[in-house]
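Hi D.,

Good news: the full-assembly prediction came through. Inputs first.
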Amino acid sequence: MSQIRRDWFSKTSAGVILGFTLALALAGLFAWLAPGGLAAPNKFQLVMWLIAPIWLTTLSLCFLFFSGVRAWLWLGGANLIAYAGLFACRYFFR
Amino acid sequence: MRSDVVRLYKTVHTWTGITAGMFLFIAFYAGAITVFAEPLARWVSSPAPIGLTALAQADELIARTLAARPDAAKDFTLHLGETEDIWARLTWRKGKDDKAAWSADLSTQGDLRLAQSNRSSLADFVDNIHRTAGIPGANDIGETVMGVVSAVYAVALVSGLIIVLPSLVKDLFALRIGPNLKRMWLDAHNVIGVVSLPFHIVIALTAVVFCLHDQLYDALDYVVYDGGLKTVMTASNPFNAVKKDERPASMLPVNALLDRVKAASPSFVPVEMRYRNAGSRGASVQIWGYDTRYMTRGKGFAVVSPVTGEIANTDYFPGSAGTWTGLVATFFALHFASFGGDVVRICYFLLGIAGAFLFYSGNLLWIESRRRTERRNGGPVVQKRSTRLMSAATVGVCLGAICAISMTIVAAKWLDGRVANIDVWHNGVYYSAFVASVLWSFLRGAAAASVELLWLAALATAPIPLTTLAGWTFPALGMHASASMAALGVDFVSLSFALSFVWMARAAAHRVAHGPTDSVWAASRRSMAGGGAIAAPCEQLLKARFGEDVGSDRWWRRVAVEGCPVVSAIGGNRARVSFLWRDPEGDATRSTTQRVYIDICSVTDHHISLPVSLERIVGSDVWRWSFEVEADWRGSYSFIPVDDKHLPPSPRGGGSDGAMRDWWRSALVRAQADPLNPGVCHVGLRGQKFSAAHLPQAPFQAAWRDADRKNRIAADQSRLRQISWDSARLRNARRVWIYQVGAVQDRELPLVVLLDGQYWAEAMPVFSALDHDTQAALLPPSVYVLIDSLDERTRTRELACDEAFLEALQQELLPLASRVAPCAGDPRKTVIAGQSLGGLAALFTGLRAPERFGCVLAQSGSFWWRSAQAQRELPQTPDIRGGAPDVLAAMIENSKRATSRIRVFLEAGSFEKIIRPESDRIHRALTNAGHDACYRVYSGGHDPLCWRGGLLDGLAVLLADRRAASAGATASRPDLSALRDSNAMEWIHE
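Then the structure:
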């Protein structure tokens, strides 16, 4: 019932920093896992295009987190999972 | 959507919008023009000096050029079009830094003519302004800044959507074209924002990518590709499709190459051929062109080997692109409007201009709401420095960009072919016009500059069609005036823009001259000293504030922008409140309205013998009346316009009190809320509609703000129960509302019993306000029981110190309620609250049953009531004559001997002539008897509009944590002033 916290600095920084790293990792997962893998010609452009929508959606919506701490924890967790996936791709597909 | 989330996103939207707004205005205005870059290029161009070489001679032209200038072989372009912006058939540059392109053509005699161009690249220049918002320096600096701006813009879009979501269906298409200009602007801002939202989302996301792709690629290379991205890029490069081979080879004719492409796609329209390494076996040609059937990145191309004629790469060829490039091409097309032909381009142009309006209006709304905030703090207003600077910057930057672009376009046409380095001239004209406009705006202030710069914009734009006209009329000038549809389109659009600027300049000038004086849009000479307003009569004040043209449509619009009633501070913590009513029938010669009575709660209502009427300003449809009051006054009011058939009985003509009371009763049927009041109207105790007047320093009613702003959030039905209480003891049945705020698992919630429950459940629903204050931790989670008081007779009987009602309440209703919601039996956590007669009943209940009701909230209590005995003789009439037994006073006196003490929150209005002194008396008596009584007097009357705020404040005081209260009664009170401040910031952002 209690009111959502504003936490401008922590929420914005979570959205900007962790949103960006998350977008990067998800785009990377797409690069690895979508047909063709890393080396598919011309695919790298679409991979790059994926970053902005993911990043900006995260940034826009991260003010919905109850507090800045939760934003950092949730997005940090999502980052950990995404990067674990990315390293797994490197390990298994290379 | 929860209201606190919406409020948070409102702040996000405001600040992202404000920071990005001015950049985006330029980008959108220039971008809209860039959609028609080709017509603009055709408009500005003059014909090629020796005429274009016929396409049939293209092979000869290539061969002879390469023979004369072998350095062109590395990279040259053959232009296939015939439009006036093509100034040579064949062009090349000697390298990346070669600013002026070289060209080759064959004269009619068959000589090869080589030349270096000084043609205007106007369309490219406008495109640069679009991409960098005119931020000077290297392009990548401007683009990086714009990348960040676009990201901020994307956040502004999402937050804007979240704000309008809750009321989307209701408000979206309610463009309230009416007297309230600010609301109309807000509605227009919302409609344009939502309707063009998909467009804006696409533009924002693509712009981020266009501006930041270098940085994004670097990050991807580092994190994902592990340094191998360059290899992937090189492998994907279509220009590498033909292997390097320096051995000389002869090339196929141009037509043969074009036929190959035609065969691959018949709908493809080639416009240029870029040759690389011509004459060698490793030569390649990119054949660029359009195909409106597909989503393309502007132009698409196929790479062909001019030696073998084989198509080497179609990654970027419309219709033949691979999955990945095809998808990405879609994003490009969506940004560049390079699909669907002219219809889509026109749509994009309009959307771009509308987008520029969106940012301009957003900034103005922000400035306007800052102004209103300041006015709330009491006028006359000196605008804040930041507001003044922001408005000057908005006007200077936005209008400055418009002027500068128009001037650059005109200058480009006049200078084309006449000066050596035209790009320097583009920059010089643009930046000097832009910087001068911004400086001018700061120098003159937003008000004056908005008018002057709009005139300048008109004066700068009109020469575009005039130049064409001059070219036709005076061929001696040497100005080529193109007559193609494309170039004429530029003239036509410019002409309509110039006319719009004239219209806007005149509208702005009118506002500056006649508008409200405290506005940033008012000319400084009119700003009035604070002292002047005191002496000025109401009429003078209205003229000074809204302009001399009293009663005109524009004047009323300006009144509506401010909203009524009009409040002016007059020093000494007092204010003059002016009420205005517009006669729908016009002035006195046409109208049948004889009087417009005003019913202000406890000021000019039925308690006074002579009703007060507004007065007509002679020869106009303006009715006005004003009075002086404390600057923290709050009150309900309504207007009662009457014609000669409904005038009140004349007091001299023998009209008795009874006749007057009858007149009031009949007049209330004609009562109407103030149509100029921006707030939502509310329902009074007798069911009539009232408007609300809140003076700047009136206690802040944060919890009621949502109700005031029409976003009234309905009670959470899952927590609201309506039960029927059939009382055996009282022999009647009534509705009871039980509302639980807070977690269900809390076993013992405080209990609040609210009398006159039907008013607080239906006429002025208190539920969302309770939610608000509970969320804000001002109130603990509690159970609220609202009791219907049935009809007037039952109410008068039961609420006037009635033992039967008290017993029924304790023995019947409370057990019933505790079965529905888990409420505490602790008297310290049980409140009985009421107003007027309900206030009397509340105090009676607390004094009679302190072991159950330890807390009493009594607002404007009818403490004049003496005893049922006395009242039977004079029903419903306050009787404060001595002699009658005073039941309440006796009870308080008796309670001295009892052990338990109750906590009481008393409140009365300064305008309540009888209740106010009676409340003083009761407060003294309670304190003397050792009860914990908190008493406050507000500036207002017998008015639910005041009670609704006091009710929540009183509950907060009474239910405050008891541990904190041990230090004394007042220590437990939440600091109400702090409570107001904490909400003040949110108020600003609305």
